[in-house]
Design brief:
This protein is α+β, with helices and mostly antiparallel strands. The chain contains 10 helices and 13 strands. Strands 3-4-5-6-8-7 form a 6-stranded antiparallel sheet. The chain has a 3-stranded antiparallel sheet with strand order 9-11-12. It has a two-stranded antiparallel ribbon with strand order 1-2.
C-alpha cells in the first residue's frame, strides 16, 4: 500500500505466527490476567483497610481464610483495639457461607469461658458486607509457637491443655462441637499482666449436638469436615460425631505440642485420613527430653480409634491433667520466662 503525499510506504506482508509466538502470547495473557486480578485484590484490600464499619475503623489485615478476612480495627469512640472478621466478598451471595458465618458468631457469643475468644458485636454494612467484632489477641498460635521454639515441655503442654479443657467443657455442656481443634486455632496470648492465656478461636465448623446440651453422648450426622491431620476417625469417615471427637483432636494437638509433628502424616490427604482410621498410634518421641509414661498413656487414650475408649469428657480430661500438673508444675514465672525468650 502506497500512501503518497509524504512518500511514506506501508507495505503489507503475509502474517506468519509460529507456535512459539502463540505460546508466548498465551503466557503473557495469563500473566497479565493474574497480575490484573492481584492488583484488583490489592486495591480492594486497601479500600477495606481505609474504611469505617459501623463504629469501627479498619487498620490493617491480620489474615485470611477460606471464608473470611480478619482485620485489626479500633472502636472510634472507645479507642479499643479489636479484630473484625468479614465474610469474603465472593461468598456474600452464598447462602450456605452466610449461614455458617452466622452460626460461628452466634456459637462463639454464647460462651463465657475466659479461654474462648470474646465476641463484641455483629452487623452488616450498607453495601451488604457481614462482619463480627471480637477481642484482639496479642499473641501467637500454637502452630507458630512450635515453629518458633520447637516442641514444648511437658509442664507447659499440661498448662495449655487444662485451659483448653475449660473452654471445651463449656462448649460441650451447651451442646456445641467445635470440629476443628488444631494448633492454628488455639492462641496463647498476653492479657494485661498475664501471659500464656489460652484462647480457642474459629468456631466456623461448630455444630449443635442432637438433643441439646443434656445429650452428652448424642451424635450428629456429619459430612467430612475439619483439618485432616487433627481429625477424629469418625470425622475422617464422614460419620456421626459427638463431643469425644473434639477430645481426639485435642489429643492430636497435644501430640504435636510434645513432638513437633502431628500423630499421622502422609503424601496425600487420603493417606492421612486412612491413618487416623486404621494405623496404630505412633510412639511419642520428642527430639529431646522424656515424656512421662502416664502422660503418654493419657495422650494415647485421647487418640483411641473408638470414642468409647477415650476419656469420656473434657471435665474428665481436665481432672486427669490436674493429677499430672501436681508433679509437673508450670508457674507464672515459667510463663514469663518463656515469653521473654520466644515471643
Amino acid at each position: 500500500i502506497l500512501l503518497k503525499p509524504d512518500h511514506f510506504v506501508l507495505m503489507s506482508f503475509p502474517l506468519v505466527v509460529s507456535a512459539e509466538m502463540m505460546a508466548t502470547g498465551a503466557v503473557l495473557a495469563i500473566f497479565g490476567s493474574h497480575r490484573l486480578q492481584t492488583l484488583q485484590e490489592e486495591v480492594a484490600d486497601a479500600r477495606r483497610e481505609a474504611r469505617e464499619m459501623g463504629a469501627y475503623t479498619l487498620i490493617r489485615k491480620l489474615g485470611a481464610g477460606g471464608m473470611g478476612e480478619v482485620y485489626l480495627a479500633e472502636h472510634r469512640l472507645l479507642k479499643r483495639p479489636c479484630a473484625v472478621k468479614l465474610i469474603r466478598p465472593e461468598r456474600t451471595g452464598d447462602s450456605q457461607s452466610l449461614a455458617r458465618f452466622e452460626r460461628e458468631v452466634q456459637a462463639t457469643a454464647k460462651l463465657r469461658s475466659p479461654n474462648v475468644v470474646e465476641v463484641y458485636d455483629y452487623g452488616r454494612t450498607d453495601d451488604g458486607t457481614f462482619y463480627y467484632v471480637m477481642e484482639y489477641l496479642d499473641g501467637l498460635s500454637l502452630e507458630e509457637a512450635v515453629a518458633r521454639c520447637g516442641p514444648l515441655s511437658v509442664p507447659h503442654v499440661i498448662h495449655i491443655l487444662r485451659q483448653l479443657c475449660g473452654a471445651l467443657r463449656e462448649a460441650h455442656e451447651q451442646g456445641l462441637i467445635h470440629r476443628d481443634i488444631k494448633p492454628s486455632n488455639i492462641l496463647i496470648c498476653r492479657q494485661g499482666a498475664l501471659v500464656d492465656v489460652v484462647k480457642l478461636v474459629d468456631f466456623g465448623l461448630v455444630q449443635q449436638m442432637v438433643g441439646g446440651p443434656d445429650a452428652s453422648k448424642s451424635t450428629l450426622a456429619a459430612t467430612m469436615t475439619g483439618t485432616p491431620h487433627y481429625m477424629s476417625p469418625e470425622q475422617a469417615a464422614g460419620t456421626a460425631v459427638d463431643a469425644r471427637s473434639d477430645l481426639y483432636s485435642l489429643g492430636a494437638t497435644a501430640f504435636f505440642l510434645l513432638t513437633g509433628k502431628p500423630p499421622f502424616t502422609g503424601k496425600t490427604m487420603l493417606d492421612v485420613l486412612f491413618a487416623h482410621r486404621q494405623q496404630s498410634i505412633p510412639d511419642l518421641l520428642p527430639p529431646s527430653g522424656q515424656i512421662p509414661a502416664e502422660v503418654q498413656a493419657l495422650v494415647r487414650r485421647c487418640l483411641a480409634k473408638s470414642p468409647d475408649d477415650r476419656v469420656p469428657s473434657a471435665l474428665g480430661l481436665e481432672r486427669e491433667l490436674q493429677k499430672h500438673a501436681e508433679s509437673a508444675t508450670w508457674s507464672e514465672a515459667d510463663s514469663s520466662a518463656w515469653w521473654a525468650s520466644f515471643v
